[in-house]
Amino acid sequence: MKLFMRISENVPLQPYNTFGIAATARYFASFSHVEDLQALLADTRASSLPHMILGGGSNILLTQDYNGIILKNEIKGITTIREDNDYVYVKAGAGENWHGFVQHCIAANLAGLENLSLIPGNVGASPMQNIGAYGVEIKDCFHELEALHLKDQQVATFSNADCQFGYRESVFKKQYRQQFAILSVTYRLNKTPHFNTSYGAIEEELRRMGVQELSIQAISQAVINIRSSKLPDPAQIGNAGSFFKNPSIDQAKYEQLKAAFPDIVAYPLPDDHYKLAAGWLIEQCGWKGYRSGDAGVHAKQALVLVNYGHAKGNEIYALSQEIVDSVMEKFGVELEREVNII
Known about the structure:
Layout: E1 8-12, E2 24-31, H1 34-46, E3 51-54, E4 60-61, E5 66-73, E6 78-83, E7 87-93, H2 98-107, H3 125-128, E8 132-133, E9 136-137, E10 142-149, E11 155-159, H4 160-163, E12 180-190, H5 202-209, H6 216-230, E13 238-242, E14 248-250, H7 251-260, E15 266-268, E16 273-276, H8 278-284, E17 291-292, E18 295-297, E19 304-307, H9 313-331, E20 340-341
Parallel strand pairs: 2-5, 3-5, 4-20
Antiparallel strand pairs: 1-2, 6-7, 7-12, 8-9, 10-11, 10-12, 13-19, 14-16, 15-16, 17-18, 18-19
């Protein structure tokens, strides 16, 4: 089998996933330009190897070794491509660290991403799952992205509409799953901020901080403070952030649950549906702070599954299935995993 010299064999993947799961890739290579990726794909295709694009590794759970080639996206660069009276359009390489990119934009007084501070992962993952937090989603400021089709090796441009964004969803998680490698993402950022502080504990944290004049910098710091107090640092405790999506139910189901569980946490949606807080459901089933070996549920946020050191991916997956089953039994609601299972 003829492979490029830059392709390594039997590479440990523990440093490349925030869960800290010990698994091995049969082959591993990184790329920082689209031409590098095209050359690698040509080689791996000729060798009939399965391949997977890896970003920051913050939204995957490795349940087995990967018997193919991992292609790690390290495309960097942040550039302003144009601006008008209201917006600045900023393009970032998919391999840029997400939080670093958010801080770059905030330092330039460009608004829109401040509520998404401290989300782990890289820029390329942001549109894949339409990341969101504290009342803001990527689709609110997304302009377009460039992606390489992995089979025909042509670069395509996707608009906001092309991405078919939904709640933690996009076209790249459904019909185009594992068919494209995102190369860059362009965001449309506001010159004049439109503050969003009504979701979660942001207003309370701003008061605690003693903020007198609202700014995107203050909101970003408030979000950082909140996330740091609730969510474990992957560098300290392996995790992939929120493991489950918040489920949506119709009004009839909501009224049924509200009658049985008056304290249920739910948020109304525009289409007579309600979004339930998955963390609350899991906590009510007694999972918060649970631990079996090194696989567990975080003590401060039941939505986060954790690896306390040497848990295997299939142990964490088995725990997640137990949680899914118990929530279904108690509430008649099916939880869906947000993390990609490999």
